[in-house]
Amino acid sequence: MIAGVSASIEISRQQWHEGYQRFLALATGSTSRDHLYLELEAISDELRRRIGQTFTLAEAVELYGDAERWAIEVVAEHAAVRGWVRDLAIVLDAAFYLYSRAAVDYVP
Length: 108
What we know:
Layout: H1 3-27, H2 33-51, H3 57-64, H4 67-78, H5 88-100
Helix pairs in contact: 1-5, 2-4, 2-5
């Protein structure tokens, strides 16, 4: 693997993991917990549609580059509740974290 690609993957994985941790903290004890999980599900469904079930971490990183744009559209259409935009980056990172674990080259 090219060093720059490998570094990019590791940086993204770290960002996704931190986002997932923030998501869990945000959802714990929150009155908007159900809405957060609804947003997560909507983004995860779109990830499945866009990248499929067989993919590499590099492909996930590439898709992530444009993810905020399409995530806004997806959540606005399927899971929008008051204030959802505020937490979108956290939910997006959490979705990528969870989905990336199914990559063919994923190593814990």
